[in-house]
Amino acid sequence: MSKIDSRTKLLDYLERNEYLKTSEVRKAMEKVDREAFVRTSDRASAYDDTPLSIGQGQTISAPHMVAMMLEELLLEKDDNLLEIGSGCGYHAAVVSKMVSKVTTVERIKYIYELACKNLENYKNIEIIHGDGSLGFMDNAPYQKIMVTCGSPQVPKPLVDQLDFDGLMVIPVGGRVAQELLTIKRTKVGIEVNRRPGVAFVPMIGTNAFES
What we know:
two-stranded antiparallel sheet; alpha/beta; globular; 9 strands; 7-stranded mixed β-sheet; Rossmann fold
C-alpha cells in the first residue's frame, strides 16, 4: 500500500470512530507526512493508530489523540497557539496548517534539536528550549494552548497566558494516566470539560512533576 493510501485509510478510520469530525482537521492531517517524523525503524508503522517512541522516553502521539485534541481546540486561522511538549514536531506541524502562529516549548535538549530539524521548513513555528510548565510569556496571549504531556495540575502560568475566551487542552492526573481537560478562560474564571482515559508522558518542570 502506498504512503498516500495508508494515510487515507488511517484518516477514514479516524472519521468512522468520530475522532475526526471536521474537514479542516482532516485536511491538516492530510498535508503532513507522519512518516517523516518517526524513526527509520518505525516508518512501516507511521500510519498505524498508535504512539511510537522517539527516544529519551518520549513518544509521538497516536493519530487519534492528535485529531481529538485539534477538534477540541476549535482552531481558527488567526489563532496564536502555544504547544507544551514539542516532541518530534509532528503535532506542531499539523496544527501549523490551521493557525497563524505556533510557539512550541520542549524541555529535553535532544528532543528540542530533533524538533528543530524536523520543523526547519515550517515558517510559522517557533521552537523554544525551556520549561513548558512556565509557558512562554514573550509570545502571549495565546488564543489556544495545546499540552502534549501529563501534568499533576493545570499550571497557573498557562492559564495566565491564555487569552480570554481562549481554549486549552491538557492531560491532568498521574504520571501514567490522566483525564484530558478542555479549559475555557473567561473573565470570571475557567470552565472545564473532562474526558477520561488518556495516557501521556509526564510533564516535568517547576509547576509539574519533579524529574
